[in-house]
Every structure is written in structure tokens, then in C-alpha cells.
Amino acid sequence: MENVILIVHLLLALALIGVVLMQRSEGGGLGMGGGGGGVMSARGAATALGKVTWFLAAAFICTSLVLTILAAADSSGSSIMDRLTPGGASEDDGAAPGGIDTDSLLPPPSAGDAGDGDAPLVPRAD
């Protein structure tokens, strides 16, 4: 459902951009200049484009609000910091100040490593 609303939202945004660019500016419009003959006069075209712009803008705002409500409903209400460590380790448990467990970030020790980090790595003579 959220994907459908998002697609409609994007189509409304593109249509709104197109309608705004077609409107007449003070210096003339993009392709809207010309004679006044025909069914729609220059004033009628401006009024119709204005109404379409208002409709598209209102629909765009409505889809924005619906997407915001759906995103708020999908959020779990917890902080992303709570999800960084699986057990919720505190700083006393050896975790870094940001709540990140640094032991899980380090690569596993190699086969020739004695395991203590203070000793220099010297190749063994076999």
C-alpha cells in the first residue's frame, strides 16, 4: 500500500512541476503565448491551469501526510541506538561509549596468533 501511495506521490510531483512550468509568468509563458482566438482565451487558460495547480498541490500535500502517517506507524518506537548491540550491552560490559560492541568488529585471531595483543608478532621458526 505504501508503494502505491509513493508512486502516486511521485507522479503528482512530476505533474505539478509540468503544470507550474506551463503557467504564464509576467514575462510570458513557456509555449502559452499567442493569439486569443479559440475556445479558451488567455484568461481562461490561466484560470484552468490555476485550478489544476491547486488540485495537484492539494493532492500532493495529502499524499505527503499519508506517507508521513504510514512511516510513523511503521516505526517501532525504539531508538536505533537500542538496536546496535544485541544484548543491549552497557559501557561497563566492554562496549564502546556509543553502545557499539567493539569485540564483534575485530577480525578473529589468526592460527599463529598467541592471543595477547601486547606481544609483538614474530614469525616462528619451524
From TrEMBL:
Pfam families linked to this entry: SecG
GO BP, sorted A to Z: intracellular protein transmembrane transport; protein secretion; protein transport by the Sec complex
Hydrolase keyword on record: no
Transmembrane segments: 51-73
Source species, domain of life: Bacteria
Topological relation to the membrane, as annotated: Multi-pass membrane protein
Stretch list, region Disordered: 81-126
GO cellular component term, pick one: plasma membrane
Lipid metabolism found in the keyword field: no
Signal peptide bounds: none
Entry keywords, A to Z: Cell membrane, Membrane, Protein transport, Translocation, Transmembrane, Transmembrane helix, Transport
Principal location: membrane
Family the UniProt entry places it in: Belongs to the SecG family.
Function noted in UniProt: Involved in protein export. Participates in an early event of protein translocation.
Annotated protein name in UniProt: Protein-export membrane protein SecG
